[in-house]
Amino acid sequence: INEELQTVNAELNARVEELSRANSDIANLLESTQIATVFLDRNLTVKNFTPAAKDVFRLVESDTGRPITHVRARFQADTVQEDAERVMRTLATIERQIESTDNGQRYVMRMMPYRTVDNVIAGVVITFVDVTRMSAAEARIDELTRDLRERISNLETLLDVVPVGILILREGGQPDEVQVNRYGAQLLGDGTRGDATGPRRLSRAVRLFQGDRELGADEHPLHLAIRTGQPVANFEGQLLRGDGERRDVMMTSTPLFEEGGKVRGAIAAIVDISERKSAEARQQVLLYELQHRVKNIIATISALAGRTLRSDISPAEFVQAFQGRLRGMARTHELLSRSNWAGAPIGELVASTLRSLVSFEPGAFSAHGPEVVLTPNAAATLGMVIYELATNATKYGALSQPSGRLDVTWQLVGPMQGGRVELVWTESGGREVPRDITPGFGLNFITRSIEYEMQGKAERETAPGGLRWTIEFPAAQNVQRP
Q: What is the pTM (predicted TM-score) of this model?
């Protein structure tokens, strides 16, 4: 019997040592995990707890055996008893988030049944996992997500409102996988935009030309930037729109890189420069036209000076006559410059010339006729002719007398292509003009200018108290088409 007792004692000692080691392992495990844990029996009294549980409940060692409802919690514990009873009744796990009323720490409280080795429900286990940092990280992630979403929305809105086409292509993307903003879609003539915001995939590939040659897909600035990893600046070419129209454009493309330096795509800005190109062409035409007109003006002034000098006049009279004709030319050119040398109406030519020479009494002057706009060359010639007519009228004709009257009328006879313009200059109420007056520089200038410059004719005839000039010239090369 003693031998058997010794054997049993030895076995019991071994079991006690194993149990001690297991308890030590469990204690160290609970200590190392820093998880607040409370063990309750079936009567919901405290059987055991870990040191970390003191951060959640106001527990002391003597609280073992007390009901959990008698222990003050550091959080809103109104539902702890109810939840524990439900766990024992349903054998289900309850999990919820709580917040400490002392320091704001956040925990995930989990309640589950306490099962013995024999799978008998002997109470409830309550664990509290500190998720303060995780909750703060989740809140920060939510904040950053909202901020990122707002930034993306702002960027998409910005891409849609900028008056520049933006094209985006990822590395390895096909030519028909280009993303484009609203202005770019309008510029490309792509009809898939609708009311969508942000970049949208094009329905067709971008087609670029240089002259008559269409660029290959690998020659496009977007693909060049992806392939070479280098920016492509100020590429100029022609863009073929979806409706078949060509537009002059300028593109600048730059690659997009990942953190490791690998190219992940490219972005390009495309600007419509058709108006700029047209303006440059117009500017060049105007420059050539200006050079041509300057030469013509110099030739005209030289001819005027030569013809005026050949007249039998004194130097003072020459200066007066020559400066008057230069002022007449200047007024005509000023009138033309207002319309960017597009032409000048006959009515404005007549009115501007006469106002600079004569101050009319009410009812002493009339000018009427349809809206006829002369070409720049014809306007310059007719302006000088009107100046000579007005000068002669103020010196020798009806306008030299207080009772003199001037009537100027014009009309367009026949169609534009084969018709003619007829202008009648009538002076009355002045001196009688002799029929056999010797033509001077002014008269010769009028007839020759109309004949040689405008391919027309000018006829003079006497009238009671004055004279009448009838000037005709073809409309085809002298009148601007509507």
A: 0.48
